[in-house]
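Our consortium's second objective concerns turning raw sequence data into structural hypotheses that experimental partners can test. To show how far this objective has progressed, the report includes one record in full. It was chosen at random from the queue rather than selected for favorable results. The single chain below, 200 residues long, was entered without modification.
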Amino acid sequence: MYFVSFVDLTSSSPFTAVLLAGGKSTRMGRDKAGVLIDGEPLWQRQLTTLRALGPAELFISGRGDGPYAGAGVSVVADESPGRGPLGGLVTALRRMQCERLLLLAIDLPAMTPAFLASLIGESARTGCGVVPEATSGIEPLAAFYPRTCLPLAEESLAHADRSMQRFVRLAHAQGLLTFRTFGAAEEPLFRNVNAPSDLP
């Protein structure tokens, strides 16, 4: 079973948390959200991680008929379906009630509340969004975004290259977010579960 401890973020301003679960799961062959990790559905595991951080608002970006339907959490469908995670981010930034958004992808089951809390703390210190970065590249799907990213995200969604990588680099260049460097010890947190062979 997967346990998390309470993370005290009462000194931080309110934020929205979203679980990004709108992918097609083509390589998995079925909806990744319903895959069991240590006997627990992946969507439930990820929501537990986000809830431990005490968000003022929590919702799922995904299909209304996903395995999490009826779980008591608001599900918001992408306003621009089929456009990848950037489409989900744009929808979430438009939908949220707070000024800051914590985004977590469904397929990062090793992510911890402690690491996400470090992003929130860094954002409180800098006043910007925060995206993890290592020598292997950036990790935009476990990151913290300010609402001020929305116009750029919308512009990027209309571009031929709708990758999160391109959007994040532009947002960084415009001073909307900073990078939080992480080392080898934290790299396992970003292990993706995309195919049956990735399951523990």
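The partners drew two points from this record. The CA atoms of residues 25 and 192 lie 12 Å apart. The longest strand covers residues 100-105. Both points have been shared with the crystallography group to help prioritize constructs.
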